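Issue 218. Parser rejects a valid record. Input:
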Amino acid sequence: MGMKITVKVRFNTSYEKLESFGNNMYLAYLMMGEDEESGKILCALLSKKLGVPPTRVEYAGKDTRGYYVFEYL
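Output the parser choked on:
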């Protein structure tokens, strides 16, 4: 089991950005609305931010607060 990363997402913004709040917490701003591809897009953004291949970041679902959860393998 790898490191857990939690991402709060704001959809339909005028810009795309990924901010780190430490402790493996991120805030993502996406220009698109939420859909079934959101997890894949966030996975690509996270892998770029972490400097690792997309295959090392895996979407694990949402937590009870509705935040996206990823696992860094």
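Fixed in the parser; the record now loads. The helical segments are 38-50.
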